[in-house]
């Protein structure tokens, strides 16, 4: 007899703390797809906006992986709990000077084992045609150090202000089909691996 199907929980993370950056346009577009994606792929989506955690510059004396008795303020602990609670991730990153944003790197520095062994799909975005490719390239080694399972090919979406407004509404009808198909493909990929690994976690001992 087959067991019950596990509904995996995927966190979509906006990896920028800018209040009015172009990432919010894409973040809201993805939010607008929530119901359709959850229904079609049998997953649960949560949306985490990094700027809402108000994380200070990481300055703990002991590295998180070596400190099992951390006592953190509520906002910092909430970040860790939200990452722990998810089974897989879509991590959105812009590109700052050919690298990832400092705010995102800082947030990742807070993590210990909360994301260990869990799949992550990287999503680069930009206001130009490059789609944040260098930001994603710099992000990958950090995720690997956290022992996350990084899916092979990043999703890249460029020219965001020409395609989406701040509410995530399409403003370029010609780009709509391509954007939608790319987003659906991205969600299908991370849903597949998240469901697979949730049902069959890699043994750590």
Automatic annotation (TrEMBL):
**Domain spans labelled NADPH-dependent FMN reductase-like:** 9-156
Q: Name one Pfam family in it.
A: FMN_red
Q: Which domain of life is it from?
A: Bacteria
Query: What cellular component terms from Gene Ontology apply here?
Result: cytosol
A GO molecular-function term, please?
FMN binding
Record-given protein name: Oxidoreductase
Q: Which organism is it from?
A: Paucilactobacillus suebicus DSM 5007 = KCTC 3549
